[in-house]
Amino acid sequence: ADLAGTTPTEASLIQGSARAARSTGVALSLRWGADVRTDLALALGEGLPADRIVVADIDRAEALSSGVAAELAAQGVYVAIDHVGQSRAGYLSDAARVELVVDLIARGFVERILLSSNSIGVAAGLDPVDVPLEFVATNFASALRQSGVSDDDVTRILVDNPRDVLTVRGGTQA
């Protein structure tokens, strides 16, 4: 739930969110934190399929050093590298993000990767993210291609994966 770990309140919120996602057919987004494996187990324990779960903040330095990206992707979870274009303390550089994407593709997880700059037009009360909205689709995609990522894989990551995770699927009442 966060960098300090999962509190009982957060555990309850994850479980309730997972039940709501399961019953409505939408995906659930979690953030990488100290207890991401526990958070994921809570969501899966509510019957939500792994391919309806996104774990964001995978481009945090601590997430990379833990090796959790490939572990989560192997379980069928979407891993969101979602600070592309940003240079912030505690996060990977774009060059390291490219390496992470290339590694995940090499391990067979192209269908589990989501990319974002976390850029927003206007958000009251939040620091602005000064990354052009098109940065991922232009600059970062170009860097991926220069690192040997195929056009098909870039399309999979930028078009197919977001479409698949955002598509509402039936839902089941508990």
Q: Helix- and strand-based class?
A: alpha/beta
Lateral arrangement of strands in the main beta sheet: 1-2-3-4
Q: H/E element string?
A: HEHEHHEHEHH
Distance between the termini: 24 Å
How many strands appear in the DSSP assignment?
4
Oligomer class: single chain
Count of DSSP-assigned helices: 7
Shape: globular
Low-confidence stretches: none
Bin the strand percentage.
5-15%
The helical percent reads 40-55%
Largest sheet: 4 strands, parallel
Mean pLDDT: 92
From the alpha-carbon coordinates, what is the Rg to the nearest angstrom?
16 Å
Task: Write structural notes for this entry.
The protein is α/β, with parallel strands linked by helices and 174 residues long. Helix content is 46%, strand content 9%. It has seven helices and four strands; from the N terminus they run αβαβααβαβαα. Helix 1 crosses helix 2. The radius of gyration is 16 Å and the shape is globular. The model has no long low-confidence stretch (mean pLDDT 92).
Q: Topology of this structure?
A:
Layout: H1 8-24, E1 28-31, H2 36-45, E2 53-56, H3 61-66, H4 68-74, E3 78-81, H5 94-106, E4 113-115, H6 136-146, H7 151-166
Parallel strand pairs: 1-2, 2-3, 3-4
